[in-house]
Design brief:
Blueprint: H1 9-20, E1 26-27, H2 28-35, H3 39-51, E2 55-60, E3 69-74, H4 76-84, H5 88-99
Antiparallel strand pairs: 1-3, 2-3
Length: 104
């Protein structure tokens, strides 16, 4: 059986944000603003999650003659992955420990 790497803290944040309202299709820009991630970080995460079957994506028409936009939501497997992913607090604690900033 292949060993899976754990998710980055940013990926966990994306999974949890999408899992908060699993039936709602979310746009990338909405996630960028909500999660305070740069688009250069967010979109590769979304592509990776989609390629792993954890995320659905679809094109949605836009108003005012603008081009269509991608919308995203988790699959059933993605919801299970989000439930199994550590909370941000744990991921943050690990980051602090790695950086040597923990005092106790």
């Amino acid at each position: 059986m292949a060993r899976r790497r754990s998710h980055s803290p940013q990926t966990v944040r994306v999974l949890h944000a999408l899992a908060a309202e699993p039936a709602v299709w979310r746009h990338g820009y909405d996630l960028v603003v909500t999660l305070d991630l740069k688009s250069g970080s967010l979109y590769p995460i979304l592509i990776r999650l989609r390629d792993r079957g954890l995320l659905q994506s679809r094109w949605e028409p836009s108003e005012s003659g603008r081009p269509p936009r991608h919308a995203y939501r988790l699959t059933a497997a993605g919801l299970a992955e989000a439930a199994a992913a550590p909370s941000e607090r744990i991921a943050t604690r690990r980051s602090v420990r790695r950086a040597g900033l923990e005092t106790a």
